[in-house]
Amino acid sequence: MKNEHNCSTHGKQFLATSEKPYRFMDSGLSHVYLVGIKYWVCEKCGSAAAEIPALEPLMLAIAKAVVMKPALLAGEEIRFLRKRAGKRAVDFAELINKTPEHLSKLENDQLPLPEETDKLIRLTYGMLSGDAALMFGIMNSVEAWLRSISGKKIIDITFKKKAGKWTRLPMAA
Question: 28, 54, 76, 129: least surrounded by Cβ within 10 Å?
């Protein structure tokens, strides 16, 4: 028979520091850590609970960090962004032109994530988020993202102003 107890009566309080940060698993991401918050660990069963102020701004900051990171998204990060956007898998999959099964495999790291799909996921989340600061960050980085697509070359596009309008000049041979 399982021994029941009240974790709140057996909890020991700690303060998360940079040397010993609190792992914020409730974010849905395994690699998010917090510093400067109070947390409690039950001395009987080891379960942890934290006092996290301003949760919504924190979640927005996490989403921004995920979207703006230079490396490809991990499956759990795709799922995190989809859920933060408030989309069911079937609806998000449709937005990025994938089947729900394909999206599920991406979210569970069962398929490699192509750079183009990665960028589309980030941009889709950014557009759905309504976060003006994130959109500004994306706008400042989108050119670098597009240039980083493997196998693509930059082709100069030249415009000339004629009669008050911009006109594209033919590409050089």
Answer: 54
